[in-house]
Design brief:
Number of strands: 4
Radius of gyration: 21 Å
Order of helices and strands: HEHEEEHHHHHHHH
Distance between the termini: 70 Å
Structural class: alpha+beta
Number of domains: 2
Length: 297
């Protein structure tokens, strides 16, 4: 009986400690029919890895974070070398609400890795593996963004882990997609979000999510307006960083790619529509969404 209870407690602690609820899908359309069997079961292997690996050092006490990975295979070879594009999303529950917010939407088009059908995936964040280190990196990014939304700068430990993985990757033969280049790289995302210049941005993001939580728990129209003011103040803080940070950084683009729709939803009834002019200036890639609100008045 004691052994049974001990085993039950152990299993319970493992269940509590794991952080992610990740839905993984694969798309093999770009692979030849003869190459597709090379990745049979790959989605199951990645799903098990993301949902069973413990990525934090402490016992995770929070709800699991819902996220999704869509893996579009681009090339394959019989020796086990693959390239893929990955679309990663994650969501966060709104406080005391049945609503959710999109936290991340990242389109990573440069994943190179080696895989043999039936291969077991084992996490070791102290060494680099082009397959599991990619998964470890994005697991830490997902958790870090989630924690930053609940506690000011709360995701720092996870971003540091992601950055350490980048350092291992950029000295490997699989550096493409990791090292800084082009509009997006894993190193640029992790490095910039840890840069002290981006701390005001991260604090503004925390205020933004707090404003959304406040709005969904409003008791009256005054509360709703106060919540909107929190969101607007966050956007104005970000706008004021123009001389300190590079607005083409993947940190800012990742935020707006995930939250431009949320901003429209929560601020479309705001009294001062000039906030959407500010948004057009700092987030021109979503101008069409903001113009819908500006042109409706």
């Amino acid at each position: 009986m004691k052994l049974f209870i001990g085993a039950l407690l152990f299993l319970t602690s493992v269940a509590i400690a794991q952080e992610l609820n990740c839905n993984v899908t694969v798309n093999l359309a770009n692979l030849s029919i003869s190459d597709r069997p090379l990745v049979n079961g790959f989605d199951i292997a990645v799903t098990n890895y993301m949902n069973r690996t413990v990525f934090s050092n402490s016992n995770w006490q929070n709800d699991k974070i819902d996220c999704a990975m869509t893996i579009l295979f681009l090339t394959a070879s019989s020796d086990g070398n693959f390239t893929a594009q990955v679309i990663l999303t994650s969501t966060r529950a709104v406080y005391q609400s049945n609503k959710t917010l999109q936290m991340l939407r990242i389109n990573d088009g440069s994943w190179q890795f080696i895989y043999q059908k039936g291969q077991g995936l084992v996490s070791n964040q102290s060494s680099f593996d082009p397959l599991t280190s990619f998964l470890d990196y994005y697991a830490n990014i997902v958790i870090g963004y989630n924690e930053d939304s609940w506690n000011e700068l709360g995701g720092t430990a996870y971003f540091n882990r992601a950055y350490r993985i980048c350092n291992l990757a950029t000295t490997s033969s699989f550096a493409k997609g990791w090292a800084r280049s082009g509009l997006y790289s894993r190193q640029a995302l992790a490095e910039d979000i840890l840069d002290g210049k981006f701390q005001p941005f991260r604090k503004a993001c925390y205020q933004f999510y707090y404003g959304v939580d406040y709005f969904e728990n409003k008791q009256n129209p005054v509360d709703a307006y106060k919540a909107q003011n929190l969101i607007v103040a966050a956007i104005n803080t970000i706008s004021g960083l123009g001389n300190q940070v590079d607005f083409s950084s993947p940190v800012l683009r990742t935020f707006f790619d995930a939250n431009s729709g949320t901003l429209v939803n929560y601020l479309s009834s705001y009294r001062d529509k000039s906030i959407f002019k500010t948004l057009k200036q700092i987030d021109p890639s979503h101008t069409a969404q903001y113009d819908v609100v500006l042109n409706s008045n």
